[in-house]
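We emphasize that the prediction below concerns an isolated chain of 328 residues; any contacts that depend on oligomerization or on bound cofactors are therefore not represented. The input was used exactly as deposited, without trimming of termini.
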Amino acid sequence: MRMQRGGVWHIGEIIAEDLEGRDVGLSKPQRVGLADIAASVLTCRSVNTSELANVLPRKVKSPEESYRYINRWLANDKIQPNKVMEGFIPEILETITAQGQTAVLMLDQNQVNKDFECLMVSLRIGERAIPVAWKVKKTKGEIGYSEQEELLKIVCNMIPQGIKILLAADRFYGTATLITLCQKLGWSYRIRLKGNLKLIHDDGWEINANEARNMGLRELEYIKLGEKGPKLNVGILHEPGHPEAWFIAMDTKPSLSRTLDYGLRWGIEALFSDLKTRGFSITKTQLRHKERIERLLLILAIALYWAVSTGMKPKEKLVNSKKNFKGR
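Result of the prediction step, given as a token string:
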């Protein structure tokens, strides 16, 4: 049973009402639980379940009951984060691209805690980003291509037809396999390359990005990434005072402005800060099952969605965003 606890109760009611009108694959109790926990997260700015239990807007005899309720919700394997996000992302994409803009997706990995890493795709909205899909893995290293491909195909299935997509990613993702996947999906891309990768021209000459920079080149067109890699273009930029140059793989003719598009990926860095030290402190979670951490990230994704929306109707808020990227 729900009860009023001031602002957190009101926020929970608003989120629950919104979820009811979306195809998120949740039963009513699951929707209400997601709404209540997300409202509690927004109130506490914490993922500590004991703190959340103290403000959870439900009529219980003790915080211990709320604590157990939250943990049961996180352990419920019928709650699928990707399905829930399918109820949000298509609408957001259609809204922010209503005037022909290109939607910017960002791919990156970040540490959840000392045992788990999270691979995430996020969607840039203005100067910030919201999560789209994610995969948590118990590892101390990088999450490899097979998981990257799986995640990006999940995201692709969320995207309505006719929407232009640009994927931005750091140099760990500058591989022939990932760029080939972008080309197959029909996405534009700005993906940073490592400077020592072999680039091969149709005429047979070879060069790497570092050599091209040393020769003063600012662009390379129609080259292959490795012996059997895809054909692509590379923009080169080494700004004064920066120790390393940018070597940016792209699907179009390179130019300075298109090379600078790579900077759009910083939206995911702001998102990771929101999830961690500057926001909800997810690194302090004591959860030890990757599926439960993925559901915790779902709660944070919904909380961030409502933080971005600032209590307004989502379409009204997103239509008024004046900083959406326009494809060149």
